[in-house]
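Field: sequence (string)
Field: structure_tokens (string)

Example rows 1 and 2, in order.
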Amino acid sequence: MSLFKTEIVRRARGWIGTPYHHQASLRGVGCDCLGLVRGLWREIYGDEPEAFEPYTPDWGEVAREETLLSAARRHLVMGDPVPGGYSTPLVTGDVVVFRMRTGAIAKHAAIVSGPTSMIHAQEQYGVVEVPVGAWWQRRVAGLFSFPEHRI
């Protein structure tokens, strides 16, 4: 694993224990899954790559647009296509995007922290590191890397 990806995981672990708060992105104060990725982006690159519109908890069901995947494709480096789940090992330090239900739009993101673990923000628990079991594996919609950068 590259030093860059090791540093991403180290920084992501620094967010563990941050309370869940919809639309927030402040380590130790509050964040949601997108806020975790946004916060890591700021720690690595400085400013966020683009302004974002406020979103409601049900934004995915209402808009029916692949907003999260589109943003990931604009700013992250896309990994191999993932039709209906992944077949290759997750890469530590990468961003993984999930569909929470079959046929639904992708609306959850996490940082891969090991071959079978991830760090994500979860309602009621905040930022936690959890195993990536079969339930999660079936829901992978995309794998992405942060662009290489010296940190």
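Row 2 begins here:
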Amino acid sequence: MFLIDVLQVQPLPERRLKLTFEDGLKATVDLDAIVKTYRGVFLPLLDDRFFQQVRVDPELGTIVWPNGADICPDVLYSVASGKPISIQHA
């Protein structure tokens, strides 16, 4: 696990997001590569106007939309950095 928060988000066309992480990494991610099927809470993200309402929730350390949709910051960091998520067992 990375435990690295998202500090900034800028929505881009075609469901892409420009992200800045607390370790300084800046990257553009394609949300389609993360959300394979837009159902349930993710369905509204297909509407460009709704998608543009993304913001960072500093308490959660990740991106959120008004309907409660969010993406795990570790998943975002993994996609942005190209590093796989690894879980270490105690």
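free_text_note (row 2): The CA atoms of residues 12 and 18 lie 7 Å apart.
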